[in-house]
Amino acid sequence: MLASFLITFREGLEAALIIGIIAAYVAKLGRKDLNRYINIGIISALVASLAVAFLFKVVYGELQGTAEQLFEGAAALTAAIVLTYMIFWMAQNSKKIKGEVQEKIDLSISKGQMFGIAALSFVAVFREGVETVLFLGTLAIQSPADTIMGFILGLAVVIVLSFIMFKGIYRLDVNRFFRYTSILLILFSAGLVATAVHEFNEADIIPEIVEHVWDINPPLNSDGSYPPLHENGLIGGSLKALIGYNGNPSLTEVMAYIGYWIIIGLFVYRSYRKR
Can you give the pTM of this predicted structure? Predict the structure, then answer.
């Protein structure tokens, strides 16, 4: 539940921040008539995101065996790629977001292309919506009820915090927000990469090299249930959903996880250190 809460909170707040920048600039220009185009973009993006979620559910529900493992691996890898792109993009552009958004609004108004503003708000919401669907989709495969609960709680917090920010009660440091949440995204993405490799191991697409580098899963309880620290137990299962924890990973899983942290972590560290 924690993983779905955090990703919903992060992605939802990012979309809200960009929509807030658009709405605030339009209000500053005295063009409240443009709010309807912002709303058109938001509503269209929400509908499109729901369509992607429905498609994900339909496709996954039809798969079994190796095809199911391949789909789970591909979904996890796709989510990791999308999140990694966002990590790169934010590391390079977090300080320039406000100026770029305002430039696009000015360009749309000067050309009389008001639907350009709708497109701007659509992209802001749909991009985060697709990321959320991909990430939560991989989590829901493991624990659907917890994923839904985390999503609802995350969305509720985003709505409340967005209202507070839009009313001017609290001012969020956008650059700091993206910097710290990038660490969370790296954590999530590394887990997704490891999960993808695990599924590809099971489908015999990627060799394990060593089947289990270690095995710290405790034995099952006498009643057949999983103890809390087992990867399928209460604590281990939560860590599995959050960071891709595996109590008995293959060598390629470990290599993928550590390799991702080294490559992406160094890039983000250097990007923010230059500022």
Answer: 0.75
